[in-house]
Amino acid sequence: MSTTKAAVPGKASTTKKNSFPADIPEDILLKAYQLMCTARRMSDLYDEHRDICSKYVHSTSRGHEAIQLAIGLQLTGRDYASLYYRDESILLGIGMQPYELMLQLLARKDDPFSGGRTYYAHPSLDRDGFPKIPHQSSATGMQGIPATGMAQGLQYLEDMELIEKEKGLVFCSFGDGSITEGEVSEAFQMAVLKNMPILYVVQDNDWGISATGKEMRAMNAYEFAAGFKGMKRYQVDGADFMASYRTIKEAMNYVRDRKGPAIVHATCPLLGHHTSGVRKEWYRGDDDLKAHEAQDPIPVYEKALRQMGVSTARLKKLREAAEKVVESDYQYAVDAPEPDPSEFDTHIFAPTPIVEEKGNRHPEGGEKVVMVDAALHAVDEILKKHPEALLYGQDVGGTLGGVFREAATLAQKYGDTRVFNTPIQEAYIVGSTAGMSAVGTKPIVEIQFADYIWPGINQLVEELSKSCYLSMGKFPVQSLIRVPTGAYGGGGPYHSGSVESALLAIRGIKVVYPSNAADMKGLFKAAFYDPNPVVMLEHKGLYWSKVPGTAEAKTIEPDSDYVIPLGKGRMHLEAAEGSQSRVLVVTYGMGVYWATAAAKNFEGRISVLDLRTLHPVDWDLIAEKVSTHNRVLVLTEEQKMNSFAESLAGQIGQECFEHLDAPVRVMGSASLPAVPLNVHLESQMLPNAEKVASELEWLLSY
C-alpha cells in the first residue's frame, strides 16, 4: 500500500463557472471532501463488519471530519503532533492510508504505529515528510503534558541555536471532556509561562461517554482558557470545513511566528458511537441524535461545494473513489498477518550504550567527596559536555540550587534557560520529559522529595514507561528523574518516605539506588546515557555522611569518564572463605551501612551485596553468592509487607532453594502508614544495626 499523500481523482482545471475562495486552494477543498467521504465510509464499514472490526475497541472521527481535516491538511513534516483517540481524519489528512489505519484497527503485525500492540488511532509515527507523532496514552487529557514538553524542548533547541528556527510547531488535540483534568491545567500554565510554540485544539461534541457537557463543566474550553494569561484564543464551528481551515491557518501562523501558545475551541457533532464498545443508542435519545445529525459536516460541505460550482457528478466521482479505496484496503487488512507471538516481549527497553564499567573509580590523587557533591559534579560534567541536556524541577534554580543544594551554582554557570525552576507541578516535571526526549533534548529533572512523586505517577506509568514498547522502539523516553528518598532523623511523614516498591511495580522504567559517592557518579552518568526512563533514588541520609555509621558513603571521586552499567551489583563486604556458616545480606541504600555495622559482631561470617540497581536487578550476582552462603537476609528501609524486598526473597527461595540451609529472611521498617516526626518514634520504626544483628544471629543459629 502507498504511504504518499493521495491525489484527488477527477481533478480538472478551474473554469469560469467555479468560484473557489482565493485563500483555500482548489485541490485542498476537493481533497478535504474526498477524505471526508473516506472517513465516513470507514466508519460505516466498521459497523457493517462489526463481528470483525469490534474485536478490539475503537473510535472513529464521524462528525469531527471537518475540523480534523482542517488540521491534518496543514500540518507539515517539521511539526510535532499529539493526537486524541478520535483523530483518524487528522491521520488521513497528513497522508496516512486507510489500509494502514485498518492494520491498527485489527491489531495486525504491520500496523505502522505499534505492531498490533495498541488501540486504533493511537499513533506513533516517525516518517520522513510527516509530522512526528510520539507515542502517547489513551489521551484523556494526559497527552497535554508530553505535548507541552515537546514545545518546551523545541523552544530550548531553537534558543540554544542547536536547530534552525524552521517555524515548526507542536499540535495537541483534546476532546472537550478532558479539559477538566488537572494535568491539562499544568500544561496550559507552563505553555503561557514560557510562551511556548504550541497549538491546542479542543473538539467539543458536548459528550464525555454518557455524561453531557452540562454535567461535566461550568464553562467551555474557550472560556476556561481565558484564565491563562498569554493564551491566544479562537472559536470556530468545527463542522464547517472552510471556517475551520481558516481558523486553524490563522492559529498555526500565530504559533509559527513564535507569538506564543494558542487554543482553538471547535464545536462539532458526535455522529458515531463513543467507542465500538459503548454504542450511541445505549445512552443517547432520539432528539439528541437528530440534533447532531443535522450538523453533519459532509452534507453541509457538499452544499457549499455545489454553490462554488462543483458538479454533482464530480462530487460523486470523488465519493466513489474514496469508497473504492476503503473497501479494497479493508480486504487487504483483513488478510494481513497477525503479529508473531514470539516477539511479544521485544522493545521493553531500548539498548543502552553503557554495558561495562569504564573510567577510573580511584584516580591517583583524587579527593574524597560526599554523595551530594558527586551528583552535583556529575550534572556539571554532563551539562558542560552535552548542550542538549538541561536540568529542571522545584527550587533547583539559581536562588537556592535545590533544597539539598544538590544543584548549587549550576544555574549561575549555565543560565536559567538550562537550569530552571518549575511550578509545583510534579506531573509536568515527570511527563514533560517524554516530550523533551521526543524532540531530541536530554532532560534531568528532580522531584523534591519521594513523598511528592505521587502526582507524577500517572505520567510515569502511562506516558514514559509504555512508550518504547507500544511504539515498537521508535520512541523510547530518555529521562533521568532524581528523587531524594529515605528517613534521616526527624524528616517526618512527608519528607522521609521510601517508594521503591511502588516504582518497581511499573514496567518499562529502570530504578537506581546508589549508596556511596563513587557509585552515585558512575550510575548517574550511565543513567543519563541510557535511552530509557531512569529513576535515581538518592538517600538524603547519605548525602553528607552525617548520619552515624555512614562515613564510607564518602569516597574518592571517580574521573569524568567513570560509568557503571545499570543492573550490576557490587560486593560491599565479603565474608571470609571457609567459614562453616555464612550469611549473605542483600540490600541497598542505608541498608548497606546497617548491615556493615551489624557484621562487626560476626567477624568473617557476613557478606553484604549492594544491589545498586533495583531494576534491572543483578540476579546473576545474587544467585552466585546465595550458592556459596546458604543463608540470606534481604534488608530494606521500606515497610517490608508487600515490598520489593519480600518479592526478591520469594524469588531467591524459589530459584535457589537447593542451596539454602535456612529460610530467606526479610527485614524492613514496621508497617506504618507514614514515618513519624519524633526521632524516637522514627527510630523505633526503622531498622538499625542492632536489629539487623539480631536477624543475623537467628540465621546463623538456625
Describe this structure in words.
The chain is of the alpha/beta class. Helix content is 37%, strand content 14%. The strands form 5 sheets. A 7-stranded mixed beta sheet has the order 10-9-11-12-14-13-19. A 5-stranded parallel beta sheet has the order 1-2-3-7-6, with helices on both faces. α3 packs parallel to α10, α5 packs across α13 (312-335) and α6 packs across α16 (426-439). The model is unreliable at 1-6 and 12-16 (pLDDT under 50).
Structural key phrases:
702 residues, 5-stranded parallel sheet, elongated, disordered N terminus, alpha/beta
Quick synopsis:
The protein is 37% helix and 14% strand. By secondary structure, it is of the alpha/beta class. The protein is elongated.
How do the strands and helices of this protein lay out in sequence?
Layout: H1 26-48, H2 50-53, H3 65-72, E1 80-82, H4 88-94, H5 98-105, H6 144-159, E2 170-175, H7 182-193, E3 198-204, E4 207-208, E5 211-212, H8 213-216, H9 221-225, E6 232-237, H10 241-256, E7 262-267, H11 286-293, H12 297-307, H13 312-335, E8 368-369, H14 371-385, E9 389-393, H15 410-414, E10 419-421, H16 426-439, E11 442-446, H17 457-465, H18 467-470, E12 479-485, H19 500-504, E13 510-512, H20 517-529, E14 533-539, E15 555-556, E16 570-573, E17 583-587, H21 591-599, E18 606-610, E19 613-615, H22 619-629, E20 632-639, H23 644-655, E21 665-669, H24 679-685, H25 689-700
Parallel strand pairs: 1-2, 2-3, 3-7, 6-7, 9-10, 9-11, 11-12, 12-14, 13-14, 17-18, 17-20, 20-21
Antiparallel strand pairs: 4-5, 8-15, 13-19, 16-18
